[in-house]
Amino acid sequence: MDKTEQKIVQYLREAHATEQALVTVLQSQIAMTPGGSYRDGLESHLRETREHATRVQRRLDELGQGSSPIQAGVGLVQSVVGQALALGKAPLDLVRGTGGEEKVLKNAKDACATEALEIATYTAIERLASSMGDRATQALADSIRADEQKMLDRILREIPKLTEAVVRSEIRGNPSYDISETGAADAARSASESVKGAARDATSSAKRNARKARKVPGVAQAEGQVKGALASEGDLAISGYGKLTAAEITEKLAHLSQVDLEKVDSYERRNENRTTILSRITSLRGDEPWPGYDELSVDEIRAVLDEGDEDRVKRARSYERSHKNRAGVIDASERELARA
Known about the structure:
By secondary structure, the protein is mainly α. The protein has 13 helices and no strands. It has helices spanning 3-31, 37-62, 69-95, 100-131, 135-171, 184-213, 219-228, 246-253, 258-270, 275-284, 298-305, 310-322, 327-339. The two termini are 34 Å apart.
């Protein structure tokens, strides 16, 4: 598979994870939306979203990316993120705003942003597929993008009416409905439990495949970025991160794997965003001597070095000196090079 095909598969997997997550988001929004044209639109789009997820998965299967253990590991990481985002958002839909009308309006504005993101995603897939002559993927992306555009247009037409409902409720004191009567809380709890179950299943499978997945070039860094997007301080490989100075953190970075470096990078950017730390991470980024290197113990690395590939030995020595600097690896590298 060449780089263009890899990129198409990557984008399709991201789109699939998003569609799956949006099923739960739509369910929670429908539950708290009163009957009428906007709720009808949400219910219709929920059916479309499920169909979109099925169609994207079918295309991945046709491309031979539906059952590979390595690709499945990468896809599951993306799916877990999508599920986690949905899990975090569904309960939030119930508490934002002051009255039911305000909550529905805020959710509608969020829906506009989501549709715009999906339109951009499928536009990119369509253009990429066109550039390599993949007509099937191009047609799929074009079709789904059109559906998302129709939904965005529909929501935009609803915004003025939803705003008027807020005015009547919040300013004139004439609410149009009681959110407690829409079944929103029960639906959100049900949706959240569904997401938790799916996330648990996906996480279990992802752990089994993660080590294999990291043997694909670039996957380690991608995994770190995905995990870092949701990481808390306790998830980082540096203990007591929040209590350390920038200088103390910088000293510890060289000992981290590419996955852990990306997690720290994402976490730092979302919080303190300190230039010294981010610059040091940038300097440590780079390809491992061979895919999966960071997952290996000293003895496992020695076994590979014993094969006598001089270029590989040099790459390992250089990488090791800049990162974990383990004497066992460096000594083994020096011995192999002395014999070369």
